[in-house]
Amino acid sequence: MSPAWSWSVQDGLAVLRTPRLLLRAWRDADRAPFAAMNADPVVMAHLPAALDRTGSDALLDRFAAQHEERGYTCWAVEVTDPALLAAAPTGAFAGFTGLSVPGFVPPFAHHEPCVEVGWRLAAPWWGHGLATEAAAACLAYAGVVLRLPEVVSFTTPGNTRSIAVMRRLGMRPDGTFEHPRAAPGDWWRTHVLYRITPDRAAPARS
Q1: Half-sphere exposure of 124 toward its Cβ, with a 13 Å CA cutoff?
Q2: DSSP notation for 67-104
Q3: CATH number of domain containing 28
Q4: Contact yes or no for 83/92 (Cβ under 8 A)
Q5: From CA 5, how far away is CA 133, in angstroms rounded?
Q6: Which domain holds residue 105?
Q7: Is the pTM of this model over 0.85?
Q8: Most buried residue, 27, 107, 196, 203, by most Cβ within 10 Å?
């Protein structure tokens, strides 16, 4: 799936654009809304636990460091569509979407490095197709710019919303695995795995 997208470099860091979104580097102003999203039990229902402010800030710092180190990250997602913004009391920040290297050794066959496409949006932004739009641009960037041979995605079997996004992106299912950070009996131990070979068609560059 390759919707209209473009990429550029700002202050030495990659920035992606789609018809309704800006995927950009992280700012200190993002910390508060990011922490509020990560503390929301609805948003975090399919993750091991919600994050407190310290954990949320550490995750943001990890994303920012990876951007500097690798040239890609889970970018901050900012809504730019006026019609959506008109009905958004929480501001333009919507969450994150992007590419990252898992913080554990994957227990499944993978390229090196293993690169995951992932997303997390605040609940008010659900239902607009934003995760699919943003993730599709990330996959296009992964193929066209990074020339990655494969990107994976994974989640718990009950996370039907994210699984639907994976399918809309054209990712293919490849069984399940046991998350190495989960203990036996943890409800979130089993994960479904999806894979895709990113499209390497000519890039849109701004």
Answers
A1: 15
A2: HHHHS--EEEEEE--HHHHHT-TT-SEEEEEEEE--SS
A3: 3.40.630.30
A4: no
A5: 9
A6: 6-196
A7: yes
A8: 196
